[in-house]
């Protein structure tokens, strides 16, 4: 297993490196770059991304903020196969957790990342056994969220929600 930091995940040099090492699987936990077709198609088992919400709800940035902003009762983590659309590939694994009254953006991030770590281990075990079942995401049933605007933060605080 390699752990490297690369400026451009779609660069020819990086793709050559991955091919040379016969990459079977790529798992993205917090990559700030969009994977191109060449990268997506390269690993034998594909590219997985961990997202901190129950996709298709709250695709995009900072789902922990948005679930609190809209008073959701639960959230979770989704491990999905990356395709060329943002947070819209096929779901491999997904788990739910309840949102508690005392939860903050930070606590939701911690909980969903821990849940995600468990999902990654489970996913690798399933892939090794050849037990890959994919579920299509209906993005029309969710929403794409960007960075919160000032008005979103004001409303968030009016609701008594906290970042930390």
Structure in a nutshell:
With 164 residues, the chain is of the alpha/beta class. The chain has a single domain, classed as Rossmann fold (3-Layer(aba) Sandwich), CATH 3.40.50.170. It is built from five helices and six strands; from the N terminus they run H-E-H-E-E-H-E-E-H-E-H.
Note the overall shape.
globular
Radius of gyration: 17 Å
Name given to the CATH architecture = 3-Layer(aba) Sandwich
The share of residues in extended strands comes to 15-25%
Mean pLDDT: 95
Main β sheet profile: 4 strands, mixed
By DSSP (H or I, 4+ residues per run), the number of helices equals: 5
Q: For the record, what is the CATH homologous superfamily label? A: Formyl transferase, N-terminal domain
Helix/strand structural class: alpha/beta
Low-confidence stretches: none
* N→C terminal distance: 34 Å
CATH class: Alpha Beta
Record field, number of beta strands: 6
Number of domains: 1
Strand order of the largest sheet: 1-2-4-5
Fraction of residues in helices?
25-40%
- Which fold name is given in CATH as the topology? Rossmann fold
Polypeptide structure, described:
It is built from 5 helices and 6 strands. It has 164 residues and is of the alpha/beta class. It has one domain: Rossmann fold (3-Layer(aba) Sandwich), CATH 3.40.50. A 4-stranded mixed sheet has the order 1-2-4-5. The model has no long low-confidence stretch (mean pLDDT 95).
């Amino acid at each position: 297993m390699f752990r490297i930091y690369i400026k451009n995940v779609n660069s020819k040099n990086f793709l050559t490196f991955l091919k040379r090492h016969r990459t079977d699987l790529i798992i993205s936990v917090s990559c700030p770059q969009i994977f191109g077709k060449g990268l997506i198609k390269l690993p034998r088992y594909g590219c997985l991304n961990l997202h901190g919400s129950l996709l298709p709800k709250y695709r995009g940035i900072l789902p922990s903020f948005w679930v609190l902003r809209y008073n959701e009762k639960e959230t979770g983590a989704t491990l999905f196969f990356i395709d060329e659309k943002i947070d819209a590939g096929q779901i491999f694994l997904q788990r739910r957790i309840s949102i508690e009254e005392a939860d903050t953006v930070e606590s939701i991030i911690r909980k969903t990342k821990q849940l995600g770590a468990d999902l990654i281990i489970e996913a690798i075990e399933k892939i090794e056994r050849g037990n890959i079942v994919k579920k299509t995401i209906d993005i029309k049933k969710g929403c794409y969220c960007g960075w919160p605007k000032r008005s979103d933060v004001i409303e968030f605080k009016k609701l008594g929600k906290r970042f930390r």
